[in-house]
Design a protein that fits this description.
Helix content is 0%, strand content 61%. The protein is mainly beta and 110 residues long. Strand 3 (38-45) and strand 4 form a beta hairpin.
Length: 110
């Protein structure tokens, strides 16, 4: 992974039933990097950054994030992205059976 954001492969798609609904997005993501590598991590809806969640975490980190979003109507794809900020090592999103990563989206109608 480089200094530009790349997708981690963790995605979730939702079509809200109402355009005025609020979506609660829960993310639990395992990541691994070399012990001298710092990275940024963000949540993106389609091509819009929803939140830059965590910066500068090191070796074999786990992040947990809950946020809300009100995107309107349509089909929306949420995904996590990460980029290396400093250090020479690569970073990876870990999503094996022992290190399960998830995005859960819950629609809350007004």
């Amino acid at each position: 992974t480089s200094a530009t954001y790349v997708t981690t492969g963790l995605t979730a798609t939702i079509t809200p039933k109402r355009s005025d609904s609020t979506l609660t997005v829960d993310i639990h993501q395992h990541n691994g990097s070399g012990n001298t590598t710092n990275w940024d991590y963000r949540l993106v809806r389609d091509s819009t950054e929803v939140v830059q969640a965590i910066s500068n975490r090191d070796y074999k980190s786990f992040i947990s994030l809950t946020t809300t979003d009100t995107p309107g109507s349509g089909v929306f794809v949420y995904r996590t992205e990460m980029r290396r900020v400093s250090g020479a090592n690569s970073i990876t999103a870990q999503q094996g059976s022992a290190l399960r990563s998830t995005i859960t989206i819950t629609e809350v109608s007004p």
